[in-house]
Amino acid sequence: MVKEKSNYKVQNIVATASLGKPVPLTKLARTQPNTEYNPETFPGLVLRIKEPKSAVLVFSSGNLVCTGTKSIAQVKQVIDAVIKQLRKINVKITVKPKITVQNIVASGTINLKLNLNFLALELENTEYEPEQFPGLVYKLIEPNATFLLFSNGKLVCTGTKNKQQLEDSMTQLLKHVKAALKNYK
User: Where in the chain are all domains bearing CATH 3.30.310.10?
Assistant: First the structure.
């Protein structure tokens, strides 16, 4: 049996890390041009990194939330860039921040035209309201992942935390969709 491969591309990784020490956000905002800080509306500072293009939420506790990267290597680069910027305001980070991936968003295709009305009836854990949104929401339990499926076969996957979970969830999706389509007349 030929194992079909769904093709997908990671669009965004959301990761968290802790610098292990407090960060003076007001000082960082005053001295660095690539920041947004409005403590009245949100407790974190937004630090924009040009390369790789991303945004990091920096909290006074030293916790970071990194978004916009497409690989773990990029997440590491971004956190190094944050540490460099903190050095400029005399905040020395001595620990190597432990990075935890919270969510991977990937887009791709399963190269099939999909009848979403049919799939909504055949698959468990689906939501489909075409008047509100043209995609079918399909939730996998193991591994934990949520898919948006479109009639042209395009998809978005969210909720996985590593490459293996992403691969496994894509494999499961393909298996479940093909099994459902066997019943389609």
Answer: 14-101, 110-182
Q: Tell the CATH superfamily of the 14-101 domain.
A: TATA-Binding Protein (3.30.310.10)
* Segment 39-52 mean pLDDT: 95
pLDDT surpasses 70 at 1: no
Dihedral sign, Cα of residue 23, residue 26, residue 70, residue 176? positive
What global pTM score does this model have? 0.89
Looking at the DSSP bridge assignments, the partners of residue 66 are: 15, 56
Domain 110-182 sits in CATH at: 3.30.310.10
What percentage of residues in the chain have a pLDDT greater than 90?
Answer: 86
For the stretch 56-95, pLDDT in tens is: 999 999 999 999 999 999 999 999 999 999 999 999 999 9
